[in-house]
Design brief:
alpha/beta; four-stranded mixed β-sheet
Length: 296
């Protein structure tokens, strides 16, 4: 359920030669404690695995998506239960919490080698090594995922903007949206943290029993980082499209996992950085050179 995602503040609005008081809407940012219980919750105390800064709302999805990306949950082993406790009203900096009860004896929590606090911009803060990151993301996608048309990709940013209610009010949120191969919107979430927005989308699909998403196209409103590729791979999503640029490590991981990675998806254009064969470009030359040939 959505929480309080915006709040009003007084500002001085300066425009041209005019200066006057005005009201403005802000995107809410508050801490959330993510906890897990392995085994019998009646006798086992919850363990805090992260405190992240996020926009309230869809907190259960955020926690579940986060744990899936970390390798603690699997798409074929959803949690036994998820408990959400909202933050106390009117207490600055007070954290809400989500407690995830893992099924059976639960998997190892060793992948969660993090600091106890992460910012809304942090995807892999506190991980002990790059080797651990690569191991956690090492889940190649199945070959032969549905191809997508370039015209569909061009239409995605407009569809994303139309479905962003809080961004329209504040201009202060990232968004992640999952579409199917025909361009139908399956899930959209907004958050001050782009990693959180993706976790919320992935968590929503896991709780709905809709993972792996082998016919999905994930569009994110910012850049494509290694962490976002990792989260998409964990959810079985074969196409990640970003309005901004990808990082070099994101491109490497996407190529290794068999994911199609698109960047600069805006203004009627985009670049394909990995697995270009999945994209059908109308009117493209039949003998267009492969990316490897261009780089040679």
């Amino acid at each position: 359920m959505p929480g309080v995602q915006t709040c009003e503040t007084l500002v001085r609005r300066v425009q041209g030669g005019h200066d006057c008081p005005a009201r403005d809407l802000l995107a809410v940012e508050e801490p959330l404690e993510i906890r897990v219980v392995v085994g019998d919750g009646a006798t086992v105390a919850p363990r805090t695995v992260a405190v992240t800064m996020r926009t309230p709302g869809h907190d259960a999805e955020l926690a579940v998506g986060f744990l899936l990306a970390e390798g603690v949950l699997r798409d074929d082993a959803p949690p036994r239960a998820v408990q959400v406790e909202p933050a106390p009203v009117g207490v600055l900096g007070a954290a809400g919490s989500v407690t995830v009860h893992l099924a059976g004896d639960g998997p190892t929590l060793a992948p969660l080698a993090r600091h106890s606090y992460t910012s809304s911009a942090c995807g892999v803060c506190g991980r002990v090594s790059l080797d651990a990151l690569l191991a956690a993301a090492a889940r190649p996608l199945p070959a032969g995922a549905p191809p997508i048309d370039a015209a569909l990709v061009h239409a995605l940013p407009a569809a994303l903007r139309r479905a962003q209610p809080v961004f329209a009010d504040t201009g202060g949120l990232h968004a992640a949206a999952l579409f199917d191969a025909a361009g139908r919107l399956l899930a959209l979430r907004e958050d001050v943290g782009r990693h959180n927005a993706v976790d919320k989308v992935v968590g929503a699909r896991l709780l709905a029993g809709a993972l792996p998403a082998h016919d999905g196209v994930l569009l994110v409103s910012g850049r494509a980082s290694f962490e976002l590729v990792q989260k998409a791979v964990a959810a079985g999503i074969p196409v990640l499209a970003a309005v901004g640029a990808p990082s070099s490590l994101a491109v490497e991981l996407a190529a290794a996992a068999g994911m199609t990675l698109l960047g600069f998806v805006r203004d009627g254009r985009f670049n394909v950085y990995a697995d270009a064969d999945r994209v059908r470009a109308a009117g493209a030359a039949a003998a267009a050179p492969a990316l490897e040939e261009v780089m040679a």
